[in-house]
Write a structure and sequence with these properties.
The chain has helices at residues 38-46, 163-168; strands at 24-27, 51-55, 67-74, 78-79, 82-83, 90-91, 98-104, 107-112, 118-123, 128-131, 136-141, 148-155, 160-161, 172-177, 180-185. With 191 residues, it is mainly beta. It has a six-stranded antiparallel beta sheet, with no helix packed on it. The longest helix has 9 residues, at 38-46. The structure holds nickel (II) ion. Nickel (II) ion is lined by residues 89, 91, 98, 137, 154.
Length: 191
């Protein structure tokens, strides 16, 4: 299967959402074990589940010549002093890159490869980040009030490996200290 006709999908510059498709939502309970302070997460769940982020999977044909793309909307919030973030993933075809373009908000893109090289890039409206092949990537919203809205695109057959990050975590984390973001070593990171 491949796309043989052009088409348009709208993404709002205000809230990042598309009126044309349904988003995939990740709620706080989906994020169990991803944050440093899991007991804090459980405590937060007592007062109800909330959407941490949503994004689009347009179901593109998984061919190397096609592109998967969409927006991701990461809402403001913290678990303890750790900012709301996406799960993050490697691509199953690890040699595939990705582009993120920031539409709204303020955050970071955290990247690391299996060799242990770590990269951080700040995300502000108008900035694009090139995630090189082999780098796992996670977005982090460091604004306590506004969502971080980004557009992404990658090779449609890249696939996702969430498991490695779910099991090992990233080597670094971003927490808030004295009202400012701080990059720290992840004490829970597993070799
Ligand atoms: Ni990706």
């Amino acid at each position: 299967m491949k796309n043989e006709k052009s088409f348009i999908i709208k993404f709002s510059l205000d809230n990042g959402l598309s009126p044309d498709r349904n988003s995939i939502k990740r709620i706080l309970s989906d994020m169990e074990g991803m944050y440093l302070d899991n007991s804090k997460l459980k405590e937060m769940l007592n007062s109800g589940d909330i959407v941490v982020y949503e994004f689009y999977d347009l179901g593109m044909p998984e061919n190397p010549g096609e592109l998967a793309y969409g927006t991701t909307i990461l809402y403001p919030g913290k678990v303890g002093n750790e900012y709301f973030m996406t799960k993050g993933h490697f691509h199953a075809k690890i040699d595939t890159a990705e582009i993120y373009y920031c539409i709204k908000g303020h955050g970071y893109l955290l990247m690391e490869n299996p060799e242990g090289e770590v990269e951080f890039q700040e995300m502000k409206p108008g900035l694009s980040v090139y995630v090189p092949p082999r780098f796992a990537h996670r977005s982090i919203n460091i604004d306590n009030n506004e969502p971080l809205i980004m557009f992404f695109a990658f090779r449609a057959d890249a696939g996702h490996d969430y498991k490695t990050i779910e099991t090992k975590g990233f080597r670094k984390l971003i927490i808030e200290r004295d009202g400012k973001p701080e990059i720290i070593d992840n004490p829970k990171w597993k070799q």
